[in-house]
Amino acid sequence: MPIHTCLIANRGEIAVRILRACRELGIRTVAVYSDADAGARHVRMADEAHLLGGAAPSESYLNIPKLIAVAQATGCDAVHPGYGFLSEVETFAQAVIDAGLIWIGPPPSAIRQMGVKTEARALMAAAGVPLVPGFQNETATDADYMTAAASIGFPVMVKAAGGGGGKGIRIVAEPESLSEALAAARREALHAFGDDRVFLERFIERAHHIEIQVLADAHGHIVHLFERECSAQRRHQKVIEESPSPLLTPDMRAAMCAAALEAARAVGYVNAGTVEFIATEGGEFYFLEMNTRLQVEHPVTELVTGLDLVKLQFAIAAGAALPFTQADLSQRGHAIEARVYAEDAAAGFMPSTGTLHTFVMPTGLGVRVDAGVEAGDTISMYYDPMVAKIIVFDRTREGARARLDAALGETAILGVTTNIAFLRALLRHPAWAQGAVDTHFIERHLPELIPDAAVLPPDAAVIAAALVSLQGNTAGGKAVAENAAVSYDPWERGDHFRLGVHPLSP
Fold it and tell me: CATH assignment of 5-104?
């Protein structure tokens, strides 16, 4: 059945991404917003927009009754949840379906089965998907966990059974720390997910995080769209993603993709989803979790396959069969994505808030920018501080790395501090060139990845920033900026007006 009007139950970058796909498909769009987002870009872009409530997510983007009411009042026939917020909440998916609307996502049953990691592990074991050695027992005592940990072998990970995003995770190196880690993980899990259940897994040192994109329709067809490597992480949050993975051999890729398809079949999956694995440099891999939604890093897959995942989500939800088979699909070239955040790496990655006085994004062959903000918009304290994703494509991995480094160097953001210098330092590290960045690499090498801020004399800084603000990356701006030795974060003012990274910094 065709989709005519879609409610986008989200905000920011992903809302803008979905809006663009809807425009190309001829689908009318209805946006929603909180008090804090009244002037947001996704609100300005949509055909119509409706206020949900206060700035707090519980009063707005997490309010299921209000979202359903807006969808019904505006004549929507579909709802796209994006990622985050309610995208992996079974009750929201079911409420959308019960309201007679099309849910742009997987069946609620698949969300439920994959949403609790202990249940997902049991399903994967039955499907023959490799699992990290672990222990799960909802009635176990701390003494039982101690016995299990000794059997698994230290170090172990204590992990929350529900939720994700790196919350409710503790790495335990010795038996004496296990009880404290269990208590801490339970507290964090209860606060974040309303579920204090935890389980144990062996901690795989020097692990790589590999995920397989899958697509399935309601007619029994399922394909994989190859892998993304997301090993560059900080506190279990992805920083840079790429495809293909520099770790995988053809045989390892084939085995992981086959396992991902089995995982998706085990839950009767439909629509777009991602099966995540932990892999070792020795060639072993283990199921980690399944994300039952679109991923932040989906543009990486789009660039190496030539497919539009959001459009495919709409087609599948409308009942169409996949327009290709596995044999039709291939990877080409190399794509890398960097997440640009409003945060201060030198201050422990503290979020930075303020008005984007200047927001100049890179352009050029092989450069794509997905952003939910423009110059004049505000980065508030209420939501995730990601301001843009910069994604590049090139024939080779080194070509893509160099292109991304250059693109980040051409990015000018005034008004908040950003992590751009940190991203460029990571891309320039020798370990990146060798494909040797594992999930704890940033943690081990953090001092090397946070360059010292060079503070400019006030007059030179003001002249350089003004030229960039007024002219963008012009020859005049370049000359003055180079003479002033512009780096990043030169401002020492009290109104939070800061320069994240100058486009001409080395």
Answer: 3.40.50.20
